TrEMBL record:
Matches recorded under PANTHER family: INNER MEMBRANE PROTEIN YEIH-RELATED, UPF0324 MEMBRANE PROTEIN FN0533
Subcellular compartments: Cell membrane
Protein name: Putative sulfate exporter family transporter
Keyword set includes Transmembrane helix: yes
TM spans (from-to): 34-52, 108-127, 139-159, 165-186, 198-220, 232-249, 258-275, 281-309, 321-339
Keyword list, A-Z: Cell membrane, Membrane, Transmembrane, Transmembrane helix
Domain of life: Bacteria
Coiled-coil portions: none
InterPro entries: UPF0324_pro
Family: Belongs to the UPF0324 family.
Membrane topology (UniProt): Multi-pass membrane protein
The organism's taxonomic lineage, starting at the top: Bacteria, Pseudomonadati, Bacteroidota, Cytophagia, Cytophagales
GO cellular component: plasma membrane
Length: 340
């Protein structure tokens, strides 16, 4: 092992080189020279795929790698995160029953409609109160109301948001997602929530599909089924909200980004329900899908660099926290008193 580009000698009294020098360490492997961040990234990713790996651990490892060593593959991480999440969600459909999913969807529809419109209205009022620019406030509100980063990515082009506005909204949502993945299972166990209650709460109160599925899978299989079904039904609201946004911001002619992977999830669920020949293969597909989700969360964590965190700013983050606190506490109270 040697220092690829030494800039100055390290004092003998220091046990470890400074962070900048540490990132420059490199070594040959199979004819290629790999840096220490690449090695750490690879080892952390492999750990996520072992039996000890879990969605919360994967996110935590990704955060550690990003904040200490930096993500050595930022472009590839961004490229594969979205696709891997979509394929994983489709794979999870092979572990679900259509009749049970329909029942869960019916139970969650009233919560979905009320929480989406309530969050959008509250987000508008809080944004004006905090004097946040209109587009950023609307992006954060949509991300909180529907499905996090996917909603922001869909609504951003509709309002013709600038890159800085998209970064602020995505950064706010991703930080809160990270907190929710650890916080929600702990609260659920503390309150002794049923699988049905916890799955519904996750789908309503956690932003991104990845963190919803990650938290629910950590809680139980029934919670996972309910959370995934309700969350994906919720994600379909991207379409009417995007159309309403185009009218509100007077941006006609914009193209909507539809969540087509939801159709794949429904198709997989129908195949699992009505094609018995697939039942022996279904558990393997679901296992691979859960591994894909774990890797997705690792890549999301690895994308939360210090630069992303600094870009958020105080007022947009306050808006995100207030919206999330309201939707989390109100939905929790309603679910505990109205859902068995």
């Amino acid at each position: 092992m040697k220092l690829a580009h030494p800039s100055r000698p390290v004092a003998s009294s220091r046990i470890f080189p400074d962070a900048a020098a540490l990132r420059q360490w490199s070594f040959p492997l199979f004819g290629r020279r790999l840096t220490l961040p690449m090695l750490v990234f690879g080892l952390a990713l492999l750990l996520c795929l072992t039996p000890w790996g879990s969605p919360p651990l994967a996110l935590a490892l990704g955060l550690v790698v990003a904040l200490i060593f930096g993500n050595p593959f930022p472009a590839q991480s961004r490229q594969y995160t979205s696709k891997l999440l979509q394929y994983s969600v489709v794979g999870l459909g092979f572990g679900m029953n259509a009749q049970q999913a329909l029942q869960a969807g019916r139970e969650g529809i009233l919560f979905t409609v009320a929480s989406i419109f309530g969050t959008l209205v509250l987000g508008f009022l809080v944004g004006r109160w905090l004097k946040i620019d209109r587009k950023t406030a609307h992006l954060i509100s949509c991300g909180t109301a529907i499905c996090g980063g996917s909603a922001i990515a869909a609504v951003g082009p509709v309002v013709k948001a600038e890159e800085s506005q998209m970064s602020v909204a995505l950064g706010t949502v991703f930080v809160l997602n990270s907190v929710a993945l650890f916080l929600f299972p702990a609260v659920g166990h503390w309150l002794q929530m049923t699988q049905n209650q916890f799955g519904l709460w996750c789908a309503i109160a956690i932003h991104d599909t990845s963190s919803v599925v990650g938290a629910a899978s950590h809680y139980g299989d029934q919670a996972l089924q309910i959370a995934t079904t309700v969350k994906l039904a919720r994600a379909l609201w991207i379409i009417p909200v995007s159309l309403g946004t185009a009218l509100l911001f007077k941006t006609p002619g914009t193209k909507l980004k539809l969540p087509y992977f939801i159709l794949g999830f429904v198709g997989a669920m129908l195949l699992n329900t009505y094609v018995p020949a697939l039942h022996p293969l279904a558990p393997f597909i679901v296992t691979v899908a859960k591994l894909g989700l774990t890797v997705t969360l690792f890549l999301i964590g690895a994308g939360l660099s210090a630069r992303v965190l600094r870009s958020v700013g105080v007022r947009p983050f306050v808006q995100g926290v207030l919206l999330w606190a309201v939707i989390s506490t109100v939905s929790l109270w309603v679910i505990l008193h109205a859902v068995a």
